[in-house]
Amino acid sequence: MQHISLRILIEDVQVAINRQADNGISPKELHSYTKYNTWDTILSWINSIASSNPSLVSKQVIGNTFEGRPMTLLKLGKSSGTTKPSIFLDCGIHAREWISPAFCQWFVKEALETYGSDSQMTSLLDQMDVYVLPVINIDGYEYSHTTNRMWRKTRSKLSGSSCLGADPNRNFDAGWCTVGASSNPCSETFCGSTPESEIEVKHVADFIRKNKSSIKAYLTIHSYSQLLLFPYSYSYNLAADHSELMSVAQGASAALTSLYGTRYTSGPGASTIYLAAGGSDDWAYDLGVKYSYTFELRDTGYHGFLLPESQIKPTCEETMLAVKYIAAHVVFSQQCFSGCLIDLAQYSHLITSYFFDTVQDKG
Ligand SMILES: [Zn+2]
Predict the structure, then answer these.
(1) What share of the chain is helix, strand, coil (3-state, %, to 5)?
(2) With contact defined as beta carbons under 8 Å apart, do 95 and 289 qualify?
(3) Which H or E element spans position 271?
């Protein structure tokens, strides 16, 4: 009798510990915003968050990965009869950068929790839609969980090579494979056999092309280095919108730093880190998506890709401030039609002061 009751007690305690220790040990299938969830857990979360918030969230599969996993895109925003301007946010293009998908999940949570109470989030979702692709490179992400924690590329097979995968952020059709990329399939920065040879890249590019008249901003989340980058990376040439992009990036970085003091560097990819062709931000910008930014989240190399789960919450909190800052600028730019006399680059300083007033109001 005692033996039986002891077994039941252990099982109860174990479940209780799993649920309390949100950064500690818990069953893989239990979703947590402060843990690095597996793809299966993220997919169940996507399905459940969409079905429990039908007035603000819808989902669609934009295609399958090389290994057949569904690339599920969430659309956040208050329903309206017409097509709203939108922001496209993606995470997990590089498999081992686990903080990135964690941020996309955090963004969705924050959007749903603060819509109706936070004025910035409410006006964002009233006036625009935000497309969130929580993981682009799902096959690589899964492989980094099961087999090789440091995997970066996709998992596609190329005939004639024993090496698998290409670098999806060298596979977009933007100066493709000219600089900072390799044509060797065994390289970590293999550009692929052709532009968009990676099916995951093609699905994202097809979706953005199809919706390019509505998509006003493209945000892509990587780690690590604490950078906020914008075009160009395939060339040292400055983007036509350089001064506005720089001004918004500096405001967004300042907003991020205001929370925990985390320092970011802003600038064009080529001069800030290195020349690299085939990146998604350059491609989106050349397609006509003006506000195109690449985030490189924490840290600066101490933990690198292996950022401890205890840093998920502060990293996501500070990154939210930068993303909301950029979004506020995009919302404003949509209200400023062709007759608008305000220089948007100058205006971003006004948004900065408005933004910090708001942050202070919230304590
Ligand atoms: Zn990356």
Answers:
(1) 45, 15, 40
(2) no
(3) helix 269-272
* 346 CA distance to ligand 1 middle (Å): 31
Q: Which of 229, 304, 241, 240 is nearest to 271 (CA)?
A: 229
| CA of 222 relative to ligand 1 center, distance in Å | 4
* Active-site residue (options: 97, 296, 309, 317): 296
Over residues 49-105, the pLDDT tens digits come to 999 999 999 999 999 999 999 999 999 999 988 899 999 999 999 999 999 999 999
Report how far apart, in Å, the C-alpha atoms of 286 and of each of 100, 240, 241, 291 are: 24, 10, 11, 11
Q: How far is CA 279 from the centre of its chain?
A: 14
What sign does the CA torsion over 82, 83, 85, 88 have? positive
Instruction: Tell me how far apart the alpha carbons of residues 121 and 114 are, in angstroms, rounded to a whole number.
Output: 7
31-47-148-192 Cα dihedral, nearest 10 degrees: -150
| Burial of 173 per CB tally in 10 Å (0-12, 13-18, 19+) | middle
Task: Give the residue among 53, 213, 44, 42 at the shortest CA–CA distance from 133.
Answer: 42
Burial grade of 361 (CB within 10 A; 0-12, 13-18, 19 or more): exposed
- Give the containing element (helix H, strand E) for 350: helix 344-361
pTM of the complete model beyond 0.85: yes
Decide if 191 contacts 258 (C-beta within 8 A). Answer: no
CB 132 within 8 A of CB 100: no
Residue 268: what are its φ and ψ, rounded to 5°? -65, 145
CATH class of 26-361: alpha beta
Please list the residues that pair with 73 across neighbouring strands: 60
pLDDT (tens digit, 9 = 90+) per residue, 139-196?
Answer: 999 999 999 999 999 999 999 999 999 999 999 999 999 999 999 999 999 999 999 9
CA of 294 to the centre of ligand 1 (A): 9
Instruction: List the structure tokens of 289.
Output: 């998506």
Active site residue 296: yes
Dihedral, CA of residue 132, residue 247, residue 331 and residue 205, to nearest 10: -40
In the chain, what are the domain boundaries? 26-361
